[in-house]
């Protein structure tokens, strides 16, 4: 049975979030959190009882904030809010993203600034622990006023509206709740708004993208080292003296990985006295490019872990002072910038990989058989695999245009500047999966190039990765249907089969 982890609101770690993304794990809330939730709820109930005016508790929303709502209709106000905002479209968000959304929302609501009842938080925990996953359409949020439409579908599932995935089936929400032994949630004052306001969807999407990019990054380091060996490149550009005087931390951290991977390579030893002076940039400048990508990943990671621990709904309840303050923590600009940084990083990782692949298949630059296959002409080898990689790199370049610079006013100009963080984070995940295929193709090509150097062998470290590839994908001796091989190697990259080499460099590695 999967062990529980204790959720300390506002103190989530990368280890916690990676565990949630990786698969189902039950949670329990730290005992200390319940008093904060109760204190915050008491403030809301005092406002309702005394009929003080507070946005979203006893008023309308957005441009309708000046419309007062009588006490008898406050529950209906919250229900109507959820139903009216359930306007998402497109495919459902994947399971790992929905798990992250749920845990992030529990953490946010449990910090004692949102005014929800303890019963609502417990319902969320029970919902998650039962293995229920709200069906949340992926499109419909502009990343301001919270991820309104997707979080409305999330709230609706708790209420018995819409659909829920349970045991691999997509079921009407009432049916799924009944199977799990749960009753639909009835929202009280402030609670619908507390769920709908927040950056949990955009943050979850960005975290999932980050976790995938980390795996692509590690695979790209391995692929780059394998390509360097297959192409009989020089390790002189990885000398620490070069990187020390550049003073860029990512570059200095990445550079030593390559000589470590190539240590004791028979192929490398075979050309120690060669006359080659310099390799192409895609080989020689790997520390500079990959190091810069690592710096962006770390910066984005710092933003996202803060956002994961943040309270981002509105209005916020400061129960010690008895204040209810309307603000704008739901504006997801930090997440949008983080997603754009990740998009730039993963675009460059894939672009550099594709350039090494292009050298590998070019007999004039590589010294290897054309397109890495015997009897080229009769066989096309890796010719179109490189075309596929080029197509994905070009697609990523287009998607790398920053989403954060776009804004369209919404809600009758009340919400007149938005972040587009939700799209930005979602597209970065797609870019990561494109990059995984590009790097995967390079891994296959580099392994093929190493095979052509037999009886010379690569380094012991790279041989481990080479053997791992060959267990799944055979040497390309003649033309065959290549698509299944690309699917296998992409899955290996995204499963983290090549990620260990860089794990100590990634966000949260110090935890």
UniProtKB/TrEMBL annotation:
Residue ranges that the Swiss-Prot or TrEMBL entry lists as coiled coil: none
One GO BP annotation of this record: L-histidine catabolic process to glutamate and formate
Placement of covalent cross-link 5-imidazolinone (Ala-Gly): 144-146
Gene Ontology CC terms, in alphabetical order: cytoplasm
Pfam family, one: Lyase_aromatic
Record keywords: Cytoplasm, Histidine metabolism, Lyase
Reactions that this protein is recorded to catalyse: L-histidine = trans-urocanate + NH4(+)
Keyword presence, Lyase: yes
UniProt modified residues of type 2,3-didehydroalanine (Ser): 145
This protein's name: Histidine ammonia-lyase
Originating species: Emcibacter nanhaiensis
Gene that encodes it: hutH
